[in-house]
Each structure stands twice: as C-alpha cells, then as structure tokens.
Design goal:
By secondary structure, the chain is α+β, with helices and mostly antiparallel strands. The protein is built from 16 helices and ten strands.
Length: 420
C-alpha cells in the first residue's frame, strides 16, 4: 500500500492510495494539483507531497514532490527505533527510474554506514574548505592563491550547496563545458585539476567514496613548447622592450638572467648586494632556483635606469607597494611595437636564453645551474657548491652574445692602417 503524505497542507491531508510510486501520470497529476492551488489562492498550497512505498519491514522508498516541481527520491529506515530519511545520491525522478531507486534503497538498508558516510560528507563547500585547510594551507602550497580563486570564481557558484557525494561525472562535465565555452579550454583544464585534487583528497579519507574524475576529461591536449626566438625576433623584441618602460625592462632582464618570470618580477633592491650579486628568494616546497648569481653589467645598467618608488621594495615596481604583475597587458602593449611574427610567451625567453648560453659556449651543466634545474645523479645530491663564479661567467657570455645580436657591428676591414 502506498501512503500519500501532503506536507504543509491541511491537517487531514494524509490518505491511502493504490497508485504506484513513479507512475508518470500520477506524478504529473500531483504537480498540476499543487500548481492549481497556487493559482487559485483559495488555500496555502502544500509545500511538499511525499509518496511512501513500504518495501519491507524497516525500509521504505520515498518520492518527494516539492511545490517547485522537483521530484526527489529518499530512503526511509529506522535506527534505534527512530525513523531516518536520507537522500539517494543522484536521485531525482525521472532521471533515476523507480527500479533504480528501489535498488538504491535496498543498498542503503543492507549497508547503512555507507549512506551515513555520504550524508556526513556534507556539501561540496564543506569538503572544499576542509581540503583547503588541511591540504593547501597545511602544506603551504605556493599555488594557494590561485586554488582559492578557482573555488570562489568558478566552482562554488555552481556547486556550493550540492551534497558532495551527489557530484558525479555528469556534473563535472557540465561545469567544465561551461567554463570552456566562456573562458577557454585552458581555464577548464585548470579547474579540472583543482576539482581532481579535492576529490582525490576526499577519496583518501572516505572508505566508500570514489572520485568521478576519469580519463579524457581534459579539454586541451597538453603540448610541450619548443619556441625559441631567432635572432631577428630577438632584435625586434629587445627594441620594442625599450619602448615599454618598466615592463620592457623586465623583458630584457628575463633574457639576460634566464630566470623565471615571477622571480625576476619580485626581485627586491635588498636582494642585490653592492657587487651585483642577486640572492634569489625561495619559498617552501618550491622548485629549484639558481640560488645566488652575479648579474652581468648590462643587467645592472637596466636596474640603475629604473626609478625607485618610495615605499616599494621591488626593482620592477607596480602599484600600491607591490611588484609589477600586469603581464598580459604589458605583453599586449609590447606586441604593438613588433612586426608580424609567430606567437611567443614570456617563458619562451627563458628557453631562448638557455639556447643562447650554449651558442655562446657556456658549459651545459653550468647553464642548467643558472636556470636552477635539478642536477641528476650523485652530483646533484652531494655537490652543494653554489658555482657562483662559473654561473657569473656563463651570464657574461650570454650578455655579450645578446649584445652582438641586438646591436650587430658591420664588418670592418683594415687597409693600410685605415678603416673603411
């Protein structure tokens, strides 16, 4: 026997009926009746109508119809004599059939601890906050700011109040499709990485949870960049950088030092000693850096040509006491001064500088140390030398080679002691 329970209606709105749970005509009929009550305004419409199908002693399947039209499956069981109702994961009608809902109800009856764990997981926001605190902040991840931005801008507006265990592959796909359409495939893949981290972290803490993230969910095939600027392009970029103020100086410094963009951008005056030695700051859990390098004379000239900003400790000063960080805007402005040429990125300058060091005759192992790359094998474990002198010589070779490219000298022929 099916019980129809009208919640929020008149006190006597409980009746027995022979209708089967999940019968499409009956569900539609009830929805229409709720809507009619709203339209007539003759009495407050019921907030919910629940069909309760007692499957066996101690377990019942419940279909709850809200006044808004949502049709949600729940399972009703008893624990210590008390009736407990829980949502069925992914359980909305007609997306989940009657048979599937009954199967889920039986699963709950046979393994209530699993469903209890699902309920205790809470909303996505609750799990995400726990992940951020116990994984991101605890491990002092350098990407914490960006991960927080992913959550606040892209993920939480969609999933904030969803039950964590109810988020399956379909919802993940819908989120990624929406982001790819509005912001591009690269942004979608970045969000996928954050969602995967959250779900993998929770999977390691919950016996019954399995992450819905699967293969082939990336929107963009990863590619390994190989772009190196040729000599004509290097001359053009160097010349254009001279027209772009502080950002242009940053571009030239990237070429002269072969360091990562953020390391150069956050260089502080206090990091540079009187002899031009730059101590590159390193944070916890960060990739390797060059440690200490002595800047070539050309790099010192660039720094001395920049105005110091009162109250701003950074060489490449931005606004409000911060380091310059408008990379996209600066790159777009610089591109306006360039002839037509293939796309390039600021990181391509680091690869270009590494290539030029080899062209200039620098030892490969020293060039790798300039870039801060890990040295493989026993040498990387036991050899703790800073190689300051060798790195300084490599950077001087690089600076001279760049100077020869951007300011090429015409061939000079001596005839009888005279130049022509």
């Amino acid at each position: 026997m099916i019980i129809e329970l009208i919640i929020g209606g008149p006190p006597d709105a409980i009746a027995k009926t022979d209708r089967r749970v999940g019968s499409q005509p009956d569900v539609d009929e009830v929805s229409e009746r709720v809507s009619e009550g709203k339209d007539r305004g003759d009495r407050p419409p019921p907030k919910q109508i629940a069909y309760i199908d007692t499957m066996d002693r101690g377990v019942a399947l419940v279909l709850v119809l809200s006044s808004g039209g949502t049709r949600a499956w729940r399972v009703l069981t008893y624990e210590n004599g008390k009736a407990i109702s829980r949502k069925i994961k992914g359980g909305t009608y007609p997306a989940m059939s009657v048979k599937a809902a009954r199967d889920k109800a039986w699963e709950h009856f046979e393994n209530p601890s699993k469903f209890k764990a699902q309920a205790e997981a809470g909303t996505f926001e609750q799990v995400a906050d726990a992940w951020f605190k116990r994984h991101v902040e605890h491990n002092k991840l350098r990407s914490g700011y960006e991960l927080r931005r992913h959550l606040d801008r892209y993920i939480l507006p969609k999933w904030k109040n969803l039950q964590f265990h109810e988020i399956g592959r379909r919802k993940v796909t819908e989120l990624l499709d929406d982001i790819a359409d509005k912001h591009g495939p690269s942004s979608a893949d970045a969000i996928l990485s954050t969602v995967r981290s959250i779900m993998t972290w929770w999977e390691g803490r919950d016996d019954d949870y399995r992450s819905p993230i699967g293969r082939r969910m990336r929107r963009k095939k990863p590619t390994k960049r190989e772009r190196v600027l040729n000599h004509d392009e290097l001359r053009a970029v160097w010349k254009a950088a001279g027209e772009c103020g502080t950002f242009g100086a940053l571009v030239r410094m990237l070429l002269l030092t072969a360091q990562r963009r953020d390391k150069v951008a956050t260089m502080q005056h206090s990091d540079i000693s009187g002899d031009g030695t730059w101590t590159i700051q390193k944070e916890e859990r960060e990739k390797g850096t060059a440690g200490i390098i002595r800047l070539p004379a050309k790099a010192i000239e660039i720094i001395e040509a920049l105005d110091k900003v009162a109250g701003n400790p950074f060489v490449f000063a931005g606004r409000a006491g911060k380091a310059l960080n408008h990379y996209s805007q600066g790159k777009a402005e610089l591109d306006e001064f360039l002839p037509e040429m293939p796309n390039w990125t600021l990181h391509d300058l680091r690869r270009t500088a590494r290539t030029l060091m080899s062209d200039a005759g620098a030892r490969p192992d020293i060039a790798e140390r300039v870039l801060g790359h890990a040295i493989a094998g026993v040498g990387g474990i036991y050899d703790r030398s800073q190689y300051l002198q060798q790195k300084s010589e490599a950077l001087e070779l690089l600076a001279r080679h760049i100077e020869g490219i951007v300011n090429p000298q015409e061939n000079i022929i001596n005839i009888g002691g005279r130049r022509s």
